[in-house]
Amino acid sequence: MPDTQALVNDFLNKLKKRKIEGSQATAKQTAELLRSVISQTRMPYTNQAAALIHSVKAVGERLIAANPVELAVGNVVRRVLHIIREEDLSLTTAAMAGLNLSAESDDEDDTDRDNHPALSAAAIAAASRSTLRPPSLQTLLEDLPDSAAVPHTSSSGGDSEGKSKSADKSSRSRKLKHDVIEAVNELIQDISTCHELIAEQAVEHIHQNEVILTLGSSRTVLEFLCAAKEKKRSFRVFVAEGAPRYQGHLLAKELVTRGLQTTLITDSAVFAMISRVNMVIVGAHVVMANGGVIAPVGLNMVALAAQKHAVPFVVLAGSHKLCPLYPHHPEVLLNELRSPSELLDFGEFSDCLDFGSGIGAPLLHVVNPTFDYVPPKLVSLFITDTGGHNPSYMYRLIADYYSADDLVLERRTTSGN
Amino acid sequence: MGAQKKGATARVSEDAEELARHPLQAILLADSFTTKFRPITLERPKVLLPLVNIPMINYTLAWLESAGVEEVFVFCCAHSKQVIDYLESSEWSSQPNFSVTTIESHNSISAGDALRLIYERNVIHGDFVLISGDTVSNMSLIQAFQEHKDRRKKDANAIMTMVVKQSKPSPITQQSRLGTDELFMAINPVTKQLLYYEDKAEYSKGFISLDKTLIADNPSVILHNDKQDCYIDICSQEVLSLFTDNFDYQHLRRHFVKGLLVDDIMGYKIFTHEIHSSYAARIDNFRSYDTISKDIIQRWTYPFVPDVLCGSSAIKVERQGTYRASDVTLSRSAQLGSFAFIGQGTKIGNDTKISHSVIGERCTIGSNVTIEGSYIWNNVTIEDGCQLRNAIVCDGVILKSGAVLQPGVILSFKVVVGQQFVVPAYSKVSLLQQPTQQDSDEELEYADSTSGTGELRSDKLNGAIAPDLSETASELGTGGVGYIWTVFEGAYDEEWRHSVAPIPTNKLVKLMLDKDEDEELLTQDGNVISALELKTDSDGNGSEDDNNEDSRDDYVSFEKEVEATFLRAVHENVKVDLAVLEVNALRLSYNMASVDCGGAIFYSMMKLAVESPHNSASELHRNAADIVTTWQKLLKSFLHDIDEEIEVILKFEEMCLESAKEFAALFPQILHLLYDKEILQEDAILRWADEKEGADESDKVFLKRSEKFIQWLREAEEEEEEDE
Question: What is the pTM for the complete model shown?
Answer without folding.
Answer: 0.72
